[in-house]
Amino acid sequence: MRSVVRKDSKSKGFSSNTKNTIFWAILLGVTILCAWMTQRAVPVMMDDEWYSTILSAEEPLTSLQDIVQAQIWHYYNWGGRTVAHTVAQIILLYLSEPVADALNVAVIILLAWMINAMMGERRLAFVTLTIGFLHGLNANWKMSMYWQTGACNYLYMTVIILAFLWLYLRELDEETHKMVPGSLVWVSILGLLCGWTNENMGPAVWVLTLLVMLIRLREKKPVKPWMMSGSVFCLLGSVMMLLAPGNALRSAEVPENSYGVLWRVFLRMYGVCKGAWEYLFPTLLLTGILIFVNVCILGNRLQRKEMLLLAGAFLSWGAMALSPHYPDRASFGTMCLLLSVCVSQAAAVMKSRDSKNCRIAMAGIGIFIWLRGMYFLGEFLSISWGWIR
Known about the structure:
The structure is a single chain. The protein has about 400 residues and is an all-alpha fold. The chain has one domain. The protein is built from 17 helices and no strands.
């Protein structure tokens, strides 16, 4: 009789875990399907056609040499985002449209996984919901993840940024992390690419690398050679991007230059405020609620890497005050840093109050935002298919 009871209890527990896994797996499948259909429905548009050429002339790309020639012209005549636009031109030249679409969806999943794994969270439910958050909290999901050139500028570049930043944040842990051979070389290359991603995120991450090294020095821990080298090359990449001659040429054409100093300051501050109260507001609201519950109600403390990520979000947002234009899609990287904090805070809340009601509350909030993201995709598909006119 005892053995029967024990078997039934195990069966019941296993059944519950299996149901949860099946539920989140189905939700993940629905999410990926929606993302794939949306990606297929988004046409080649805007700069995609231009980046399919050698840029300086209306001649299509035919080889890697053409891409090098195009990027040299781009650096001196248009802008310094060489890494992002090189990736865009490689995709536009060598990949068919279905393959490029599949790659974009795969990178969305990869980014969601990285946001969670960087904070030590790898549960299927968290990854699934994060994919939804990337849509539901995004100021412009279409232009930052589905438009091919925009995806290379923001989606792909954020993967590089988080990969580089992850190496530094894990050095704050007590455990010792092993690096693969040749770390000095490949971390330097990754740092160069990270700094050369986009104007606000590259310098912000460089500052975070300095802060991590300062924390280690304060704790009388050694600053590893790859950490110093990666930081230096991240700074070099940022300088190469910001000082591109093409940036100066484009800035000279901005109408704002004809305005007075006070008016320009007002416009810059307006752009930054718009970034916080419009582009980033949903993510900031979610971050604030989770921190309030975890810190003020449950009495937990923010982890050091969470504070660094919040600092990075603040720096990447504030850096846009130096730009005459703050497009909504430029908030994508900042949103991802805040989402990392949200993941960590939600996990901390569930650890502190690991009850059924707490899990239901966290899952309810997550699914609500996930539904918002899927609503955006569903609306776009309905318009594309002619269901909404």
